[in-house]
Design a protein that fits this description.
The complex is a heterodimer. Chain A is mainly α. Chain A has one domain. In chain A, 77% of the residues lie in helices and 1% in strands. Chain A is built from 16 helices and two strands. In chain A, strands 1-2 form a two-stranded antiparallel sheet. The longest helix of chain A has 27 residues. The radius of gyration of chain A is 21 Å and the shape is globular. Chain B is α/β, with parallel strands linked by helices. Chain B has one domain: P-loop containing nucleotide triphosphate hydrolases (Rossmann fold), CATH 3.40.50. In chain B, the strands form two sheets. A six-stranded mixed beta sheet of chain B has the order 6-7-8-3-9-10, sandwiched between helices. A four-stranded antiparallel beta sheet of chain B has the order 2-1-4-5, with helices on one face. In chain B, helix 3 packs across helix 4. Chain B is globular. Classes of the chains: A mainly alpha, B alpha/beta. At the A-B interface, helix 10 and helix 11 of A face helix 2 and helix 3 of B.
Chain lengths: 325, 251
Amino acid sequence: MPSSASELIPPLARRIGLALAVYAALAWLPWAVSEYHLHVLVTSFYYVVLAIGWNLLAGYTGQFSLAHHTFAGVGAYTSALLVLHAKVPIVVGVAAGGALAALLGWGLGTLCLRMRAIYLALATWAFAESVRLFVAVEYQITRGDLGLMTPFFFGTPRPTPHYYVFLALALGAILAAWQLVHSRVGVYLRAIRDDEEAAAVMGVDTFKWKRVVFAVSAVFAAIAGGFQGHYVGLLSPTPMKFNEMAIIVIMVILGGLRTFWGPVVGAVFIEVLSEALRPWGETRMVLFALLVILVARAYPAGLVGLGAGIAGYWRAKRDRRRASP
Amino acid sequence: MSPTFGRTSALLEIRGLAKRFGGVIAVDGLDLSVEAGEVRGLIGPNGSGKTTTINLVSALYRPDAGQVFLDGERIERLRPHEIAGRGVARTFQISKLFGNMTVLENVLVPALAELDRGARRAPEQIRERARRLLDLVLLDGLRDAPAKELSGGQSMLLQIARGLMLQPIRLFLMDEPFAGVHPTIKDTIMETILNANRDEGVTFLIVSHEMATLRRLASRVSVMHEGRLIAEGSFEAVANQPAVLEAYLGG
C-alpha cells in the first residue's frame, strides 16, 4: 500500500500542481513592482522559453544550432501576418507559427543530420541569415525594416496582463522540458550527445530524435516569439540578427549548459543584469562575452553548477561538524 | 533483383563485401560465415580490415559492394539502430561510453531504445537485467558513478554489459575487447562471454590480437589479410598455413 499521499498522485499531475502553485505564488507581483520592472520580468520569461528550447538542442543533444532566434521570428511574423490578413484570433496565429516552426525545424534538423559541431553551427547560421534577409527584403509582405504593426494580445502595450501569459509560458516550457528530459527520450538525447555512433549501434534512432528535438525546440521559440510579437506590437528583422542568438547562447552557458535549470537562471540573470546596466549600452555585450569566457574556462557548469557546488560544500561541512563529537 | 537464395544455417553470412576509403581498399571481396551459437575469432595483421568488417556489419559504414545476411535477411542497407533491433550488439576498441551518464544509465540505453521500437518490457524486468549484468561484470557498486570515471578495463566491461542488454541478443561483435586490459578484468570478460554463449546462446565474433586468450574462447578463427579471408579453421589448422605465416611474417 502506498505509504504517503505523494505515491498516490502520478508524477505529471504532481508537477502540474507544483507549477500551478508557483504560478499562484507569483501572481501578486504586478501589485508589488513597477510596470518597468514587470516589463523586465516579462522579457525574462520570454528568454526563459527560448533558452530552455536551445538547451534541449545544444545542451542535451549536442546540436549547437545558431538559428534558434530565427524560429522566434518565424513565430512572430507568421502570427502577425495571419492575424492582420486572415483575421484569425491571436492564439490561432501563434499556434500556426508554432506549426510552421515545427516543419521548418524538422527540415533544418534533417539538413543537419550528418553535420557535426562547427558545420552544424555554420549551416544553421546560414539558414538564420537567409530567413532574416528574406524578411528584410520582402517588405511588401513583411514591411521589412519599416516594421510590421501587430495587434496587442490584450489590446494594450502595458505589461501587467502579459505578465500572466509569459509566466504561464515559462512554467509551461519548464514543465514540458522536464517531462521530455526525464522520460526515456531524455536518455536517448543524452546518449546522442555523448556518443552518437554508440547510441546508434545500441539501438537509438539517432536521426529521428535529432529531428524531433530540432522541431520541439523550434516550437518553443516560435510560440514565445509569437506572443512576444503581440506584446511588443511592432515586428522588425532586427531581433533576427545574430546578436539575439548570442544573447541566448550567453544565457544558457552562463546559467549552465547541460543543466536543467541553467537556462532558467541564466535567462533571468542576464535579462535583469542587462537592464541594470542599460547605461553601458553595447559595452554590456563585452562584459557578457567576458563572463562567458570565464565560465567556460573556469566553471563549465555555470551559475547552477556553482550553486550546487556551494550547497554541497556547506552540506559536507555541516555533516562533518555533526559527525565530530 | 537482389539474390536472396542460397540461404544457409549461418547466423551471419557475408558475401563479397567490399569497402574502400579513397585509394585504400580496406575490405576486398570478403566472404565469411558464422554459425549460430559459435564463438568465432577474427584475426589478422594490422590493417587487414577486421575493424572495417565489424563497422560494415553494424552499419556504421555502407559497403561499396557485397551482401550481409543475418539469419537469411539482408541487412547491409539497414541503419545502425535497425541492426541493433535485430539483436546485433557490439563493443568498440576505444571506449565509446556515454561519459556524462551514469553506469546504470549506460546499460539502460539499449533497453529503452527497444521500447521506442515497440517492444513491451516491464520496467522492473529491465532494471533487474541491468542490475544482474552489472553484477556479473563487477560494476554494480559503481552504478551511480559517471561512466567517464571508469578505468579502461572497466569501460570495456561496461560496453559488454551494455551490449548484452539488447533483447533478444543474437550476435555480439567485439573489437579488441582484451587490448590493454588488466589480467583479472580479462578473466571477467572471458567469463561473461562464455556465460552469455552457454546460457543465452549468444553468437560471438571477436576481433583480437591476444591469441592465447582467443584460443581459450573460440573454437574456430577466421584470418583476414588485405581485406580478404585467407584461412579459417581451428587455431592449430590455421597456424601453419603458408598464407597465414606469410601474412603475419611478411613472407
